[in-house]
Design brief:
Elements (H helix, E strand, L loop, with lengths): L1 H22 L25 E4 L5 E4 L2 E4 L1 H6 L9 E9 L4 E9 L6 E8 L2 E8 L7 E4 L5 E4 L6 E3 L4
Antiparallel strand pairs: 1-2, 2-3, 4-5, 5-6, 6-7, 8-9, 9-10
């Protein structure tokens, strides 16, 4: 008896598979179209600027001191002044704009990430960003906008010009 049930079950599955093949994809809403995911924005770095120190708290330009730890610390938006920090990423544009992606380790409250923008040793802007914003790096788009890539590279945040 159990042998007949197996044969009937196999025959039923074969009939369902054949009917599904003949039926095709259909034309209705039951078919979901795949949409192409846009490639992440290409982020560039003109080079020449690097983070230095242990921990990374200074910026060098072609081997010379460009920003001190005190300058970087003083530029933190309130209330983050005077906290422990480390520079995670540095990127620059051909016109000399330098972006710093900084991990802040606040003594009161959770860590906060900050991006600072500098040119000619002067602060242009500083603003906090959510954790995970720049774990995959920072850079500038072809048109000069700052971008930050998430750790897995699956999300790029493009910031408005400052």
């Amino acid at each position: 008896m159990s042998g007949r049930l197996v044969v009937i079950g196999v025959a039923a599955l074969a009939a369902i598979a054949a009917a599904d093949t003949v039926r095709g994809w259909g034309t209705g809403a039951e078919r979901k179209l795949l949409t192409a995911v846009p490639p992440p924005a290409v982020l560039r770095d003109a080079g020449g600027f690097v983070a230095a120190g242990k921990p990374l708290t200074r910026v060098l330009h072609k081997g010379r001191l460009y920003l001190t730890a005190e300058q970087i610390d003083d530029a933190f938006p309130p209330p983050l002044e005077g906290v422990l920090f480390a520079i995670g990423h540095v990127a620059s544009t051909p016109d000399g704009t330098v972006a710093l992606a900084i991990y802040n380790f606040g003594t009161a409250g959770p860590p906060t990430n900050v991006i600072e923008l500098w040119r000619d040793g002067r602060l242009l802007d500083a603003f906090p960003v959510p954790p995970g914003t720049f774990g995959g790096g920072i850079g500038f788009t072809r048109d000069g906008r700052l971008g930050a890539r998430a750790p897995r590279g699956d999300r790029t945040t493009i910031f408005p010009p400052s």
